[in-house]
Amino acid sequence: MGRRLPVLYSLSENYKSLPASFDPRKKWPNCKTLFEIRDQGSCGSCWAFGAAEAMSDRLCIQQQTVSGRAVMVRLSADDLLSCCRDCGMGCNGGFPSQAWNFWKHEGLVSGGLYGTKGVCRAYEIPPCEHHVNGTRPPCEGDAPTPKCKNVCQEEYKVPYKKDKHYAVKVYSVHSNEDAIKHELITHGPVEADFEVYADFPTYKSGVYQHVSGALLGGHAIKLMGWGEEDGVPYWLCANSWNTDWGEGGFFKILRGKNHCGIESDIVADGDVDCIAGLGRGQKKTGIAHAQFTRGDEAATKAGASVLLGRPILVARLHHRKMLLQQLLMLLIAHWSSRKPHQSDRLTDIIEYINNKANTTWRAGENERFTDALSAKSQMGSLFNPGGSMLPTKSSHLSSMQKAALPSEFDARKAWPDCPTIGEIRDQGTCGSCWASPQRFDLPSNLIAFGATEAMSDRICIHSEGKEVVRISADDLLSCCGLFCGFGCNGGLPKNAWKYWAREGIVSGGLYGSHVGCRPYDIPPCEHHTSGNRPDCKGNSKTPKCQRQCVESFDGEYQADKHFASNVYNVRASEEDIMNEIMVYGPVEADFIVYADFLTYKSGVYQYVKGGFLGGHAVKILGWGEENGVPYWLCANSWNTDWGDGGFFKILRGYNHCKIEADINAGIPKIRK
Fold first, then answer.
1. pLDDT tens digits, residue range 315-370?
2. Which of 31, 237, 430, 433 is catalytic?
3. In terms of C-beta density within 10 A (0-12 exposed, 13-18 middle, 19 or more buried), how is residue 231 classed?
4. 17 or 121, higher pLDDT
5. Among residues 7, 56, 10, which one has the least CA distance to residue 238?
6. How far apart are CA 597 and CA 49, in angstroms?
7. What's the CA dihedral at 287, 292, 298, 303 to 10 degrees?
8. Could you tell me the pLDDT band of residue 273, with boundaries at 50, 70 and 90?
9. ∠ CA(112), CA(118), CA(120), 5° rounding?
């Protein structure tokens, strides 16, 4: 998939003199690009804009630092967008890291805003109105990607090749607030990406924090400074939606909390779902992808949660088209990882974590996966296409209610009459985590498991222990069809919950249990552990949809259906998630899995070392602290000999590996 960017680390001594606020426009006032706002038009080109804007600023800053004279060059987003073949799909999204690599290896010519003269390649797509009323036409439709033209505009006399500008070095910045600040104040603006919710397009002033509205996708912008407003810390950012959006095209977003993932992917590493213009009630995104391998030594202590290969959310695109894009990403992921990276050998990872890394958890041999590559079949969470979003539930907790949340909570203790809460299932060699709580962009039945486990718990909880039923992952996995995804090759978590509400799901227990209408059809296997079951190798076929119960079950298929009265996505707030679990029961969550997670044995997991494997859906059932480290208590679906009896703890409150970004839940209809 091309070159990954190394992670740049800076010494902590450099952080001691960082000011409370910083605006590069004041430090480098002669670099006029710092003041400018571009307009991407109706093209999902944010990945190219975020890069080209920061590159232009840095060229000027570097020239001023070296020669004392500011040299203004506006690098061409058009050149990058159209000519970088390794960068992705142009107006339909791209790889930010490859954009920076293209600058280094191929160079970029001068450009500028739409219609600019006196430059090699000005932007070709006209501006439009982004979420505002104005004199320009609204941002509607999908602009085609401009053709790659290795020639400059007619009136520009410098030959194309001679107009190229290059980088000496490109890199990703360590995901640490002070490291980002040090990078900004030393070298200038960076490219960052974050998750955009429906309330963000309405931003006018102040420090943005997500309050309400569904997830629209990802967006790349230029992050340029920081400060505080009314005691609230913020990052200062430049958008690419023209000057009549936000505060003259700029905005502020909460700093230091990785809010909406803003601190996860700095400079050009990670994926973005470029949000272009909203033309009066529409949303348009492009697909921005990141590389599928993250296994080099530079990433050992990056601590960044990188969401890779994520398809976009586009309400107007046909559902099946989006599923085909999902499938394409699965194939790319599969083809690009035939050989595990040297640094992904699990024995090396175990040795490093236990003896060299200063971390909060312990690793060990878990032979369910003999190596990192064998684990990819266990990843199965896909990202939702537009039109399938769940409504977002916000608790709107008062400061008093937040303070009243307990320091620890375990659903097994809160509802002891509900045995499903403490059970661990086994998805086998099927990417069905999406039907169980698990989610990733690679083959896996994890999502089906994550969902059905939480559904089962909630039926018992809301019936006050009177109804103990194990909802069938097999029924969800096989009968939801393309609405949910690709069965054992991955699925869409939110649509699993919608299916529960609309179609209902029958009962079904573990493999061979003879419990329920449709028990799980795929045998258990050893997930990264040594044991008496066969190793988890290969990909199981998705079971056939059988709308009838097994012979041993005394009941009819349709009569055994269980339904939800309401399904929703929980706002990505630590307190909202805690309140949801404490009041209504366990939830489904998905997160990003790296190779070291396979080796987890005990403690509070934090990413330390190893390549990206995919997404995974799990059940969150509580929280607490261990040695002062806050954690979420989660149930995996890799049987009881993996991890801590099948359970694990993961860092809480920092959206670590995106664990807090996509929380799904629902209220069951209780039978009378």
1. 223 344 444 444 444 443 343 333 444 445 667 777 877 887 777 787 776 544 45
2. 433
3. exposed
4. 121
5. 56
6. 34
7. 70
8. very low
9. 65
User: Hey, what are 263's tokens?
Assistant: 């601190």
Write the single-letter amino acid at 252.
K
Q: Which of 222, 242, 279, 25 is nearest to 114 (CA)?
A: 242
Per the annotation, the verdict on 433 as an active-site residue is yes
- Is the per-residue pLDDT at 309 higher than 60? no
**Does the active-site annotation cover 616?**
yes
d(CA 459, CA 48): 47
pLDDT in tens, 331-344: 433 433 334 444 45
132: its two tokens: 């505002």
pLDDT in tens, 45-57: 888 888 899 999 9
Average pLDDT over residues 218-246: 92
Radius of gyration of the chain (CA): 25
Catalytic residue check, 488: no
Residue 227 class from Cβ within 10 Å (0-12 exposed, 13-18 middle, 19+ buried)? middle
What structural domains and CATH numbers belong to the chain?
Answer: 37-171 (3.90.70.10), 177-337+344-374 (3.90.70), 409-530+541-598+615-668 (3.90.70.10)
Q: Which of 327, 639, 332, 338 is nearest to 491 (CA)?
A: 327
- Of residues 530 and 610, more confidently modeled: 610
392: pLDDT strictly greater than 70: yes
Record the tokens describing residue 153, joined without a space: 């505009």
Length in residues, the chain: 672
Mean pLDDT value across the chain: 78
Q: Tell me the CA distances in angstroms from 93 to 90, 312, 654, one per residue in order.
A: 5, 9, 27
Instruction: List Cα–Cα distances, 520 to 106, 422, 484, 588, in angstroms.
Output: 52, 18, 18, 19
Active-site residue, from 130, 187, 289, 616: 616
Asked if residues 240 and 46 have their Cβ atoms less than 8 Å apart, the reply is yes
Tokens matching residue 351: 């040795």
Strand partners, 173: 8, 266
**Which position among 384, 636, 655, 664 bears the catalytic label?**
636
Q: How confident is the model at residue 542 (pLDDT cuts 50, 70, 90)?
A: confident
Beta pairing class for 7-8 and 172-173: parallel
| Mean pLDDT of all residues in 252-259 | 93
DSSP string, 111-162: --STT--SSSS---SPP-BSSS-SSSPB--S-PPPPPP-SS--TT--S-TGG
Please give the structure tokens belonging to residue 68: 């004392």
